[in-house]
Specification:
three-stranded antiparallel β-sheet, mainly beta, 521 residues, 3 helices, TIGR03016 family PEP-CTERM system-associated outer membrane protein, 24-stranded antiparallel β-barrel, 27 strands
Length: 521
Amino acid sequence: MVMDTANKNKRPQGYVLAPALFSLLLSPTLQADDEELSRDWQVTPRLTLSETFTDNIKLEPDGDADLVTEVSPGVNVSKQGGRSRVELDYQLQGLLFADTSSSNDINHKLFGAGQFELKPDWFYLDTLATYTQRNVSQSGRLSLDTVTGAGDLDDVGTLRISPYLAHDFGGQVEVLARYTHDEIRYESGASDSSADGVDLNLASGRFWRTLSWSVNHYRNRISRDSAPNASFESTQADLAYRLTDTFRLLARAGNEDNDYPSSRKVENGSYVAGGALWRPTRFYGMEALYGEEYKTATLMLNPTRRTDIEVTYYDRDVGTILGAAWNARIRHRGPGLTLGATYNEDTTTVQQLELEVEPGLRNIDTDEFFPGFDTSGLTPGRYEIALGTVPSLTDEIIERKRASGTASYDTGRSTFSGRIFSERRLFLTSQTTERVNGGDATWRWAYDGTTDFILRGGLINTLRASGTQDDRLWFAQWSVEHDFTPRTRGSLELRRTEQESDRAANEYEENRITARVRMEF
């Protein structure tokens, strides 16, 4: 069975949904008194004006030139301190085309997160809201932003509300009970969905020295308007008995109960496993458990106090990922240097991916990806569509294997940041495959206190349907930015983008120049 991959007969929701998300995100803090609001809030309005000349406005094999005027008012709202933290950025992007006025458009862009302490040491609330545009399909002509393109962009709005209880009951039992409600809305590309999740964690407290235990129950039920529903549910209990300071006996039991559309059988059931944990020094440790339906082994390395490495092997007969699988994480933080790498295998949906830490948007001015549920802050800026992070809009369940690495280095006047990734996707209903590899890098040089020079470049290669379609897109960009005043910044930017493909209709070349000024008030 092939799922319906589009919701037709929808109308754009940006004019209604974006402001609604904005107000809902802020609503918990609006209950505060006037004195607290005036003390903790920072509100920064801004206006961005730009002119872009491009020689290929629709990214066609033989495209036409155009001049695009962009008028984008926006506001950044933040609150740090007290019992709440809010980071929010909203921008209305108005686009005026000199030769193709029928393409004139208005886009809403909203990114925000809020964390609220309702009752200290007991009750908390997290909120997340986003509204943006992205490519509907990864198999056509891809656009890096909303200025140029074939018109194949979709509005995507997300909302997350997550109240939770976190409390330590006298060192005996630690409890974390979280409820999460998600809403994802598309203009046309995929099914709207709602999701309700419960995550319950009970663990032994600090007074349990010889015997420790934990119980975790997770459930997420996804309701989709024009596609089959899906549910993911798992329960796991762990027990550890300390024989010595470096050696513990382990026991694990669990149950998987998942229901989602797939052309192959979904394997549910229970598992039991036993094993041991050995941690002789702070530099390394090992953990292994063995059972008939569940086997796992983990290697933990800490070669320095700044470096953390963990690699886990699984072999499971029940659950969403069957057979051999790996998870890995590497982190290093040194003077001026930060490195990170991850590898994981999971089963997910496009709708779930919209709410992940790296949903596919980049702040060009800070070279940061966001939003994320635990984002450390949003910086006012310009945003582009980061390719390869989210598949084509589809309602199929996706089994994916993703490896990624990030690096940043700061010498004071010069900063470098980059990432690489490789992802393999299996769509479980159609059994089609997609492999995406790519990366990008940015070098920023501070010439003096007011002028920066920036070089950026990126490449993405996508292989679909077992190699029957091969698309390669790359871009290179040079820009100079200058602070005319502490609140006024101008820039001049040159960029070349090129896409090569086995399909002639997907190929294009684009050269552009953009002059921009941004004013904060």
